[in-house]
Amino acid sequence: MGFRASSEKKYTGNIIALEDSIVCTIKYDELEKMAEQYPDFQKNLLTAMSQRLNTQDVTILNATAKERVIAFLLQTFTRIYKPQANALNALKGVFQLSMSRDEIGAYLGLNAETISRMLTELTEENLIKTSGKHVELINQEALYTKIDIPMPQ
After folding, report:
1. CA within 13 Å, CB half, 88
2. What are 37-67's pLDDT values in tens digits?
3. Residue 3 CB neighbours (<10 A)
4. What is the mean pLDDT of residues 86-94?
5. Mapping DSSP to helix (H, G, I), strand (E, B) and coil, where does residue 23 land?
6. In whole angstroms, what is the distance from residue 74 CA to residue 142 CA?
7. Phi, psi at residue 25, to the nearest 5°?
8. How far is the C-alpha of 109 from the C-alpha of 25, rounded, in Å?
9. Backbone phi and psi for residue 130, each to the nearest 5 degrees, phi listed first
10. DSSP strand pairing (128-131 vs 134-137)
11. Neighbours of 147 (CB within 10 A)
């Protein structure tokens, strides 16, 4: 459910799946053992944590509405859809939003009209294409540049 549990060694929150999901639970002690036994796993875990924190910083710390929307789109694609896109290659940068404009707005602290306006601006800048909940990230590198985060490799 996230990296917040690492300091308390448990996560006391709840989660709601927005689409069909598979849940894998790992006890914290087992995670620590895996990190010790497999240095590459530990490196990948720390990299994922760092990237997640960097993206969240943009969403939380005095970001503009556009920066929040960009961070949300990149985060959504990376966390949920990028593994599928890599597997199928033809889907690179293409995904379906599971949340409505209202839900995205509530998540980002913006209203639905602002979300729609930011998506339109990003479309006009030729950075994304949208059709309903269908999104294509046309220029991921430029999107990462706009939020001042290096593009993951």
Report:
1. 10
2. 998 988 888 887 777 676 565 555 678 999 9
3. 14
4. 57
5. coil
6. 11
7. -105, 140
8. 30
9. -135, 150
10. antiparallel
11. 20
